[in-house]
Amino acid sequence: MKALLALACLTLVSACGGSSSTIPPSRVVRAPFGHTKDNMPVEMFRLSNARGMEVKAIAYGAAITSIRVPDRNGTIDDVVLGFDTIDGYLTASGYIGAVVGRYGNRIARGQFRLDGQTYQLATNNGPNHLHGGVKGFDKAVWTAETREIDGNAAVVFTHVSPDGDEGYPGMLTAKVTYTLTPANELIVDYTATSVKATPVNLTQHSYFNLAGAGSGDILQHRLTLDADRFTPVDATLIPTGEIAPVDGTPFDFRRPTAIGARIDADDPQIKNGNGYDHNFVIRRSAPGLVHAAWLEDPSSGRTLSISTTEPGVQFYSGNFLDGSMVGRGGRRYQRRFGVCLETQHFPDSPNHADFPSSIVRPGEPLQSRTVFVFGVAK
């Protein structure tokens, strides 16, 4: 949208019980995390609160490397896929934990037309452009600074993308802020300004496994999506342009449903995605922050609630994880060991006039918020 939805105030009570006003604020610690192949230093930032929640993020790709939260018995474990050292992030595919951009998701044939001019982007996913191209924002070292926001610890990552970067027009300045609150909320704020009109779609690409990263697949996780419609895709995962109802299809997650219940259904869209790899249209009656998704692991009792100002969420069931990536503690990440819930504008929006616009123009910055709230089912 030309100036994305105004950020809404969010008041939540922690699933752990009690009022957050009586709990000490979160804090942040920074430390070295190695160097890139061209010897650029990369720092890690550890946000923690008094409830035992901890979030780690690094300047390389503004990637979230770890989120540790308690289960129903108070046992704390990591619930996102990640690596022990910088080498994993430098060599692995899959965008593990990273912020992707300039344009998260796909653009057909790497082309779009804007203000009378045709632009050709890098094609790095078959015939299409994916997650910003060959060297997207996930492969950049962002600058970082720590802050205190409303008494809570935060880290702000900034990346400047030059004019022509991967084929995109205009110099773009992107900022991503991670804030941890006493109520076990991880607030992710995105802003972007450009000197020329350009498509922008920033999103967070963490793979969640609420049973514990590397512990097994996510097929028994129960998912709810506040979406009555989704955008079907062709064989290369580009939206056809249709906005289709989920009713009567394997894409109906309006009630809590095990991810694995229909993941291998005899359905053309399931076959195109090799499982789930589709954009869902978030139900909303007004602009602002709305609830989008709920994820629950029955074995641990851990829950994740997601609210966003974005119009869509990409549900990706980790279909292309294949065991080649060795994660924390030497665990291999096999197929469907993690699920991504990427709040976003729709894939290929620059080529669909009836999709919500993802164009950022001078003086009309992108502003977006997504809130991840971790809790325990009662």
Would you mind describing this structure in some detail?
The chain is mainly beta. It has two helices and 27 strands. The two termini are 38 Å apart. The strands form seven sheets. A nine-stranded antiparallel β-sheet has the order 11-12-13-14-27-23-22-17-20, with no helix packed on it. A five-stranded antiparallel β-sheet has the order 1-2-3-4-5, with no helix packed on it. The relative contact order is 0.19.
Which properties best describe this structure?
about 375 residues, Beta-galactosidase, Chain A, domain 5, globular, mainly beta, disordered N terminus, 2 helices, about 40% strand, 9-stranded antiparallel β-sheet
Q: What is the CATH topology?
A: Beta-galactosidase, Chain A, domain 5
Distance between the termini: 38 Å
Q: What is the multimeric organization of the chains shown?
A: single chain
Q: What is the overall shape?
A: globular
Strand content: 35-45%
Q: What's the structural domain tally? A: 1
* Total beta strands: 27
The low-confidence runs, each spanning 5 or more residues with pLDDT under 50, are 1-21
Question: Could you write a compact summary of the structure shown?
Answer:
With 378 residues, this protein is mainly β. Helices cover 3% and strands 38% of the residues.
